[in-house]
Amino acid sequence: MKPLAFVGQLPASKSILNRLLLIQSYFPEFKITGDSLCDDVHNMRGAIASFAKGEDIFVGGGGTVLRFMALRVSRQPGRYRLCGEERLFARPQDELLKILMQLGVKSELKSDALIIESNGWKLHGDTLLVPFARSSQFASSVLLNAWDLPFELFVSLGGQKVSEGYWRMSQRIALDLGMKIDFWDGDFRIPRGQKLAASWYVAEPDLSSAFAIAAVAAVSGSASLTDFPSQSLQPDAEFVRILASMGVPIVVSGTTLKIEKASRLNGVAVNLKSSPDLFPPLAALCALAEGESHLYGATQLVYKESNRLARMADIIRRFGRKVELLDDGIKISGELHSPPGARLMIETDQDHRLAFAAAVLKGAGYHVEIDDPEVVNKSFPEFWSVLGWQVPQPSSLES
Q1: Is the pTM of this model over 0.85?
Q2: DSSP-assigned letters across all residues of 131-171
Q3: Residues 279-288: pLDDT tens digits?
Q4: Fewer Cβ within 10 Å of end Cβ, the chain: N or C?
């Protein structure tokens, strides 16, 4: 496997784009600078277009697309069918149904679809209760769908908060675009009749994708990421500090971030409560690092495209490290025994970020096979071409 040698800009953040696209569905004149070819953004665009045409709304496998669009369509009277991958509808959606019920919206969750019947939002009671313990997307969806309401909306956030960085992203975007929000004790109020106060917005590069490339560079070659934001809305910007603490050479020059291969990697202790998407590639780096590592604070990882805690623990054990599986993370200890060239099949379990983790191990010189390399299309279809690798094709290799 040839060393990484990448210089360039990565696609725009899918998290930011999907928030902006949702807002644009209320204000069609609003312009967005930046784009991404990933499945999640493609499905968001398609879902909004289908909604406008009165067609069934395909949301694919993206939790963000489903949760954002469910509240979007419920703003307008009608009957809607949001359909997609069965695995998506098996993920936690109870909170979504409870929110819809409080808004006077009928909903029915099926194995491959969510059926919504609405007469518009008609809040039952004084305050909308929004659970936060398993995902911040429910709160973000309520906030970003609260433009031009005919009534003021009081929202109370319940449960221990997870992925707060993405919730802060939603707040910042809404505030930047002119929404008036009153915050107190974690709850908030949105006055009636909120209008857009900006005509355009620039979506910064995707830092979750940036970390996938940076993690490979840390074990093989180098990467120079141009137009890297000095101050980012994205919680995954934390990866720069984390890599530096692991001993990875990092240089910031203007708007370029350069990452080079580390002579050795140090184990780390990292709280991933606000940036859980870093976990799979970071766990792979920690498997290659000297000493112990403790990744914690991310209970929501069991509810992602796969149970990322259990899946990464299993992968790392195959490389000879000791792994303690915790409710909110993992602890890695012991010595790395599998020599370079060891042949291992890694099953991505339909999870794009497990493929990123596998690429880190492959970049470090291990003969790793990936069962579904195209799973990266969900968030970063350019991943293999940015690495300069041919798309790895799975063989009959036994796991």
Answers
A1: yes
A2: E-SS-SHHHHHHHHT-TT-SS-EEEEEESS---HHHHHHHH
A3: 999 999 999 9
A4: C
